[in-house]
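User: Structure tokens for both sequences below?

Assistant:
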Amino acid sequence: MTWLRLLTACLALLAVSACGDRFDRSELLQAAQEDELDALRQADRHILVVRHARKIDEACNGLECELSAQGDAMVDRLGVLLGPRPMDAVLASSACRTVLTARAGHADVVQHQPAPGLDQACGSDEPITRSRAIAMLETEESRARWTLVVEHSNTVCTWIAAFAPDARSACEEGSLPSSAYGDIFWLHRLDGDWHLVTLDDAFDVEAPQ
């Protein structure tokens, strides 16, 4: 029955490419550079951190601000890159622009406070008590293979600094440039250490006509 045990093991590990060149999110992998592929394939955990898609008005900074038509198109593009299979975990600050972007993960969105004391939820009257610090701790301790995190220009950098503090990124003095949209910050764990690959402009799209 050795062949049967081998087949069972091969099927169980197919998602991490142990039995071939397949990868469980092939569209996403195709957006990476050639010299990044081996590490991404071998990683046992992945956290994709993104800034919310474009807002209906760049001057709108309230929690209730929604996405523009271009932002909606960005969400669709991100969903294509992530593939049809739901993410194992999807997290977002409770600002509506982040929650709406998180729909690309095809799974329930777990909201956390965008800042201490801001407990208004997007789409619900139930107050949000979960802090970002708790969200980060639970993500670090999680066994989820794939996690999507949707944040803001500054708090994207908070996640990167927490998981891969020595990695080079677009963060300048703790924040992304105001014009930076559509990048995917791909944190991946390899041999117990977290590393960062950035997919520049991966889901930025032109405004619909």
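Moving on to the next sequence.
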Amino acid sequence: MAGLLDQYTLAGNSQALSMVTWMAEYFGNRVRNVITKYTIERHWLSLNEETGGMNDVLYNLYRITGDQKHLVLAHLFDKPCFLGLLALQTDGLSGFHSNTHIPVVIGAQKRYETTGDHLYKEIATCFMDFVNSSHSYATGGTSVSEFWSDPKRLGGALTTENEESCTTYNMLKVARNMFRWTKKMMYADYYERALTNGVLGIQRGTEPGVMIYMLPQGPGKSKAVSYHGWGTKFDSFWCCYGTGIESFSKLGDSIYFEEMGSSPGLYILQYIPSTLNWKTGGIRIFQKIVPFSSMQPILQISFNISSTEASSQASTLNFRIPFWTVSSANGAKARLNFQDLNLTDPGSFLSISRNWGTNDYLELLLPISLWTETIKDDRPEFASVQGIFFGPYLLAGLSDGDWDINAQNSSAISDWITPIPQLDRFPLVSLTQESSNETFVVLNSNCTLKMAKLPKAGTQSALHATFRLLPHNSTMQSFQTSDHNYLLGQFVKIEPFDLPGMYLTHQAPNNSIIISVYAEGNSNSLFKVVSGMDGKSNSVSLESGKQKGCFLYSGVLHSKGSKVQLMCKQEDASFKNAVSFSLKNGLRQYHPISFRAKGVKRDFILEPLMSLMDEAYTVYFNITGWRDRNYT
């Protein structure tokens, strides 16, 4: 029905209006018959199922037709047992199915806009406050196993079945309406958070048609491992596919908001590369973003603003200064036509009123802060459970479940979180061998090494098959894996991608290679890169730095199994093949936004949750000795 109504309102299709009017007549008769035969209570009970945004579309239809039957039918989908609690300003969300009831709130918002009944504005405001304060994860999403749990009890609700994607889609609608009514920054902040962390990562990389139903939040969970996991391109069509597709089709619908009046205004909420032809204000805006990273943590936005009229009228542009940046005293800047402006504090709007010219240029330089936020759970045992953010990006730690960080002696968040330096981002390699027309890789399996078939990009296995080569007592320069001669003769430590500070370590010959923390002077973690013993120009062998003549050895080329161990030199061809590896570009690379966090038992690689595919991660960390909302 909503789609048909859009066909009429956006494309002028009168047949679509006739169809949706007929459907409203049909449903109206059905509802009246149920009430007449079984009582109205039976009808209210039927609304416990996912009836979608029926009240919303019916209020929209009434605004077009003026037919009182459409208004009455819309009222009959305003679920009283749910909206009544909100009218009393009572948080009774616990136990309600989230995605059944968020659309009811959207319909209540439309009732306020249609009838002017302020009660429904208050209902929506109260609902948004309850969700934000007590029921939302660090992502901005809500629900566990599709339902709301008790308020401020999310610490015990971190599982694989968190945050149904549909709920985030609908919460964005609620937040968008709230901002339109109030222009309050809190709703713009929510929209940015939920869009960035709860929408952009629900598709697997750039694969069309591969989406998730739930967004797991528990320690060591993965988007790929839940009741639904990733869907398939042609055989999945859950509700979250419909809302997911629509979410990606309207990424630009909440960048700019217009304020009408004698002097028109425009609010710029989201910093997303875009072009706007603002007809009311008579100007065209080109917004550009300079790429940033954890090593270059400044959001640099430029606006080319040009009048589209011979004599432009005065108008006001309001630029959102996010709460996660810093003040002008600490480095934030705004310039208009290369002249510095007085920048407002974070969490407010920079308002500029003027007659815009034909070639005005505005630039914002907003340093991006690291900050933390405690989970919404008021029990003392969860006070240390916190999410870590880089500006609007929720950072997830690559972890199979470990989540402990001790920040007791830290005065700044930068004491225990540091960006991955550019020099540390290479060389990332994967060690491969060929056998029977198949490619095998060295892979970390529970801190021992084994050989496995070449994994698919984005998988946990691809991450575990990527290692960083660190020179011993020298500086590693960038090199191409196709030309590894630079490495020959050097001693290196080999660090698993997701275990910074831990290295491949050999034991006695004929024993497995393990992964352990490097101890200064321990040559068991040193390997000398030598020419491949198989004699091929593109291979290398890794000789023990402690036991000369012993090498990293794989059984993949013969029948001795797949484990990787240290074996001493033999002259037969099978041995020479088993200790010869090709250095390939790492199957996994660091995201431009990558950090290292100091853990209790191990350190963590942090990357934006939105960027992850099948990797195991933890969204929340158990951080002792640290208060949330600490910026740096």
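User: Anything stand out in the second?

Assistant: The chain has a mean pLDDT of 92.
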